[in-house]
Amino acid sequence: MTPDMLARIAAARVEGRGVTLLTRLTDGAQRLWPDEELAPALAEAAEAALRDDLAANLTLDGEAWFIHPQAPALRLIIVGAVHVAQALAPMAAAAGFAVIIVDPRGAFASEERFPSGVTLNHDWPDDAMKALAPDARTAIVTLTHDPKLDDPALDTALASPAFYIGALGSRRTHAKRLERLGELGHGPEATRRIHAPIGLDIGAVTAPEIALSIIAEIVAVRRGPRRAAKAAA
Amino acid sequence: MSDSEDILATAAQWREAGETVALATVVETWGSSPRPAGSRLAVSGSGRMAGSVSGGCIEGAVAEAAQGVMASGTPRLMDFGISDERAWEVGLACGGKLKVFVEPLA
Asked: What's the gap in Å between the CA of A73 and the closest CA on chain B?
């Protein structure tokens, strides 16, 4: 790989733009899609690899190519810079997520309480969420218990293609939350997307245990479908 | 695969610090290989390693090959598998097979 190619891949990552690296295994020649024009078969494979986030092999005119998607980082938006968020942020970062914490309460979302790699956002959740524009590679977790903060975040989350939405709170809290979201126009079909009570049921008690159950559930939602497809094949 | 770009960032840092660097990438797997295609391992001239191409079974052999690739400047496609004597030697006990592409960062 040339240093120039590495720099181009790094730049795409910073821009949050997915690219696919194609390597000819006979001599190491490399191309970057969609930045470079490619033979149609290669371009098609590059697009599919990026869409499915799955590397592939292709032989074209007797030459073997490795098709390697370079997807932008997954994002985790945590609403509520609470104790569980402090435990969840480093776990999510270790699992490969870019972590953004949204909390207008400065005493909670302080640099002292969170590691340096985490982005702190002090806007109100509705403004913050609109600016962050969650996509299909974004997970959203609300942890405040406070309808003033959680509800506007969930309102925006439900209007987005986020692959995971989870809300902390008991079944009773969640039932009330569903009523309020219903008044905002989110029917049962829409709110079924919300994982609540949040996290896999591992009997979590402490903040780090709850964080572990949440990150495990996010991974299960992301990886589960592919595993199920593989098992069925 | 979200960790693979961090490997590139590490490789870039090493290079900026004046090290020679090689990149190894899993390009094909069969059976129970522990790391999927696309997994990366960066190796520096001074022997530093970041990332992985297996569960630790073949990293030593790949790192050794990486030194050769840095010296020659020529990429190399390596085969590891249960049918390969070298694989037993390096301990790919999981029973999988994989191909690793090793290239210089230059």
From this structure: 6
Strand partners, B44: B21
Token pair for A119:
């982005």
Domains contained in chain A, CATH given: 3-70 (no CATH), 74-224 (3.40.50.720)
Task: Tell me the nearest-neighbour CA distance from B16 into chain A, angstroms.
Answer: 10
Q: pLDDT tens for residues A46-76?
A: 999 998 889 999 999 999 999 999 998 899 9
Sequence-separated (6 or more) residues with CB below 8 Å from residue A82 = A108, A143, A144
The residue among A2, A17, A66 with the most chain B CBs within 10 A of its CB, best to mutate, is: A66
Looking at the structure of chain B, the number of domains it has is 1
Q: Which residues pair with A22 in a beta bridge?
A: A31, A67
pLDDT, residue B34, reads 75
Q: Are A194 and A166 in contact (CB under 8 A)?
A: yes
Q: Is A183 exposed, middle or buried (0-12, 13-18, 19+ CB in 10 A)?
A: exposed
Residue of B nearest to A65 (CA): B27
| ipTM summary value | 0.85
Q: Which residues constitute the domain of residue B90? A: 4-104
Which residue numbers in chain B have pLDDT < 70? 1-5, 82-95
In B85-104, the residues whose Cβ lies within 8 Å of chain A are 101, 103-104
Is the CB of residue A68 less than 8 Å away from at least one CB of chain B?
yes
pLDDT value at position A117?
83
For residue range A65-120, list pLDDT tens digits in order. 999 999 988 999 999 999 999 999 999 999 989 999 999 998 999 999 998 889 99
